[in-house]
Every structure is written in structure tokens, then in C-alpha cells.
Amino acid sequence: MEKPSPYEVVHDKVVIRDQPTTKGKMLSVVVRGTTLSGVAVMADGSNAWLRLSAACLQELKMALKTGEQAWVLMDGKSVGLGQLLRPLPQASDVKPRQGYPASQPKARPAPAKPETAADTDKAGKEKVSKTDKWEEPPVPDAAKQSGPKADFMVVHEKVAVRHIPSTKGALIRVLQRGAVS
After folding, report:
1. Residue 77 clears pLDDT 60, i.e. is over it
2. Which residue has the higher pLDDT, 134 or 11?
3. In 68-178, which ranges are E strands?
């Protein structure tokens, strides 16, 4: 038996059917961005269908009777639609990038304590004026290269890449769905 492969729904929605034919009984519908897993089969002569794995059915909370299977059309050209599913790389296919040290990042230095009593309030907390600007603390070179990097595929419509891990960080670029970074 073939090992199931992951696929992403790239059409607005796709129908899960009880047979690998567009005339099969509709069991459910899944929407864009849903990850399915199964085995691709040329079932009705010219169309590829994904036979959903038991694990996928369980994840989708679909209970089928013994011996029943669930199918999704992979390309909708034959019914006037475009691509419905696209293959995703399997975890074993994603290899870490080479050339990065495997050391753990060092902890960032603690923020400096206020120098004088005038810099603190009655409770001893640091005062922050509205004119103070946030600055990123210096990052040691070892922390910039935190270890092996893995490729990731964007599955949301758009993803913002920022210079620090914060929504307040400066925008570097925007990645579109399907981009690998």
C-alpha cells in the first residue's frame, strides 16, 4: 500500500465524494487552505483523484462505514474548474539549509536598570516618556545564526516578514501563498 502524501486545497472549496466520480455521493466539503492526505489514483480514466487516508478522515471528523472510502478530484479541468489540490512537500523532503552553526542562541542581555531615582516612579518601576522610542537590543552574532534553518511554505493568503519577531517590527517584505522561504 502506498504511503499517503499531503495536499493543500487551492480552490475555494472542493467536494469529498464516496466514489472517484463527479456523480458520486457528496460526503462533505472542505475549503481553501485545508490540508488533506491520501494517495493519488487515476480512477475514472482521465482524472486523478485523491483517496483520503484514514488519518485524514479522522482529522476531518468523518466517520465512514467499514469498506467505504472518501475521494477528492485533484484537477477540475474536466468540470470547468482549475487546479483543486496541489502537493505539499512531506516533512521528510524538507531538508535543513546548510552552513549554519548548530549552537543554541545566547540569551539577549537584560534591559538596563534605571540609573537614578528620578527615572523611577513611586513603585520603583521605570518611567517611560511618550517621546521614548523603542530600540531593538543588540543581538550577539551567535543569536543571529541560531542553527539549521528549514524551508517553510506560505499557506495563508499573505504573510508579513518583519525584521524582529513582533508585529511592531519594520516590514521587510510580504510573501504570497505558495512561496517557500
Report:
1. yes
2. 11
3. 71-73, 85-87, 158-162, 171-176
